Fold this sequence. Notes:
This protein has 422 residues and is of the alpha/beta class. The chain has 3 domains: 2-42 and 198-271 and 366-421, FAD/NAD(P)-binding domain (3-Layer(bba) Sandwich); 100-190, no CATH class; 273-362, Polyamine Oxidase, Chain A, domain 2, CATH 3.90.660.10. 30% of the residues lie in helices and 25% in strands. It contains 12 helices and 20 strands. The chain has helices spanning 10-21, 63-72, 122-125, 140-144, 148-163, 172-181, 199-213, 257-263, 321-324, 328-343, 367-370, 398-421, and strands at 2-6, 25-30, 41-44, 49-52, 58-59, 78-79, 84-90, 96-101, 192-195, 217-220, 224-229, 233-238, 241-244, 250-253, 273-282, 295-299, 305-309, 312-318, 353-363, 383-385. The strands form 5 sheets. A 7-stranded mixed sheet has the order 8-7-16-17-18-15-19, sandwiched between helices. It has a 5-stranded parallel sheet with strand order 10-2-1-14-20, with helices on one face. The chain has a 3-stranded antiparallel sheet with strand order 5-9-6. α1 (10-21) links the parallel β1 (2-6) and β2. α2 (63-72) crosses α12 (398-421). The protein starts with a strand and ends with a helix.
Amino acid sequence: MTVHVVGAGLAGLAASVRLASAGQRVALYEAAPQAGGRCRSYHDKTLGRVIDNGNHLMLSGSRSLFGYLGEIGATDSLIGPREARFPFMDLETGERWVVRIDRGRWSRWLNDPTRGVPGARLRHRLKGLRLAFAGRETTIAACLEETGALWTHFWRPMATAVMNTPPDRASARLLWATMRESFVKGGSACRPLIARESLAASLVDPALAHLDRHQADLRFGQRLRQVDLDGQAAALRFAGLDVALGPGDHVILALPPSQIADLLPDIPTPSGAHAIVNAHFLLPGPANVTERSMLLGLVGGAAEWIFLRGEIASVTVSAADALAEESAKVIAARLWADVAKALEQPIDPMPLNRVIKEKRATFAQTPDEIKKRPPTRTAWPNLHLAGDWIDTGLPATIEGAVRSGHLAADAVLANAIGERGG
């Protein structure tokens, strides 16, 4: 039996690693010349540094992610503060504050002004509990009412980052799924983490090494053109390569929803999407960064989050459809004005930079689009789906991508056990 995994993004890697660890023969195909998908890293010639394609914040309570890191031997490759703390700055007023979350469940930050957003009233702090009872059609903005300092200085920037969808359209119930696995459990589950060196060094390279040790067959530059179906998946047709599936073989398609819609039009897929814009700036020298200051949330400007690693200040803007239409030069100037103010750097001259636009970074996580998320199992018993856009119960995050890969791998393993038993 061979499991053919198509797509070497994080979902495909997570599925492949779990299957290989279980002793299954794995063949992994990827259209690009490298693995990683949205989590890939590369050496940028302009900056002379390794940068990530996009910035990704991870949380300490991400159980699927840490299961994956444990499998590939990279658990210690993420760094972050020892306590759950999220520093912010208001670019308009210059005010700075830190949301600190202790280790208790649904901890004191909700009703302790010294641990949260200055000026947040008790009735606004308690509104966060509404997320637990949100209906299927309720948006985040409707649930939390878009009022008060807590909304503008915490909920809106945090919700936009998690959902990559404007809060007035994003699903409140889906945001609660993340809150339930992190903030509700207290500080031990929501410490912010980033990759120590790069996303590839933490999430991709160790996975490829793991697959190599387990003798997986990795093939890059292979774009899937067609899936032959005859009651089940019978063959995979790539450009220049046909793969006939033998008895007991399985397929996991870890591809974006647009490709699944083309390959398997009978499967419902989300059609809307939102952009993420990232910009990387080469500072004159290493930033004065400790584990407590590697991340900064911004409100009142164009930039939303700054990630600091060495001499690189990386900026992320989520739900950035309008910004993504601007030129890279305009984007860099707008974002550097915010970064310079936040980091107390001279605005001129603007440092060397690289702007990366992901115009369809994630599906639009609205109540209507969420209804289109398919499960990992399909009508064809040997064909499964993976990707942060399938129905994992979580938003389209790193944790959601890894969990989708685990769901697909576990379904294949369950089928294999059933076939042997039959």
